[in-house]
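User: Here's a chain of 375 residues. Predict its fold as tokens.
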Amino acid sequence: MRKFSVCLFIVGILFFSSCGIEENGQSKDKPTGKVDNSVNRTATCTDFVPELTPKPEAFEAVVEPFEVQGPTGNTIYGMTRRPDPAKYPDLCFPAVVLVPGGINPGRLLVYGRDAEALAGSGMVVATFNAEGRVDDSPEDLRSEGVEDFNGFRQQEELCAVVQYVMKMPGVYASNVGISSQSYGITMAAGCAGRHPEIGIKYIVDGEGPPNSFVTCHGARFLGGDMAKYKTVKNIFDRLATWQDGTQENLDWWAEREAINFIGDFKGNYVRLQAEWDHAQPPENPSQMVNFNHPNGWPGGGPAWWHNKHTADIVNAAVVGGVPWVRVNLSQQGNLINATYGAEAMPMFLPGELADKPWAVWAILEMTQMDALDGD
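Assistant: Prediction complete.
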């Protein structure tokens, strides 16, 4: 079983544990050489849309490497898993770019169960390592450059990957979206919100933090849970804006708070939120009272309540004018473009986000929707 050491270091501390989830059921097929886009195909292809229910065996898929140039000229290494173009030359498939949680590498997510399910159902799945990132597996490649903590530079890299995928032969170019996990929403919202001209169809956001208070575990700090707070502080080597209001810190975080960009997105936005968040308190019913401070913490501190971060980022999307916004899947019955508050929260997914492949189902639903009118 392939080890994802960076993921294991951060998981449960700040970010969605996708790497651990995707670890099981990895494929043994390995890419060789560069992407072969020379396969003979007809001048036009039929746009294919997969069914709402995953069908992992519907298409025979292949894994292929690719590389793109980032905004600094550095090489970004990625991979795709897609229906074999040699076997399906007359079809164009929708695509999704996966953005990992935290500051984790993402290229090897192509071997995960979500990528297998989506590609087998009839999608192109692209994964990549942002600048400076690499897994400890000998199969991985380190993207050139240095870590940017999902700031503007890495947001531009994501946009470059999306545009590369849109131009691939066999891709349904107007049906390409992003699926992010936890802190990956910072990169996703920054790319899609700052570059609406690209035409990204949708974002599926798995419990991402909207701002530095949530990213840096402000609620845990105020609740006396210092372990995770200190771990994240060591990762970023800085404080959230509510604890450090210097201009330098405000400027740094201005690039790295998804709430600043999500309202400028012009596609469909799905926020996935389970009852018990992967990172934020409360973690169970017994902690509800301790973390219920809708008017602010006694003695000072920003307001917090159960899954407040979902209300914050969804409200910012709706108020900002995102044309179609919803929390969770249609089965939860949450209204489109609804806003929320402490006394009126959406229906959450049961349990934890890692319990079921919620993102796969959300992505498949988004491929069937019109980004302009939400039909």
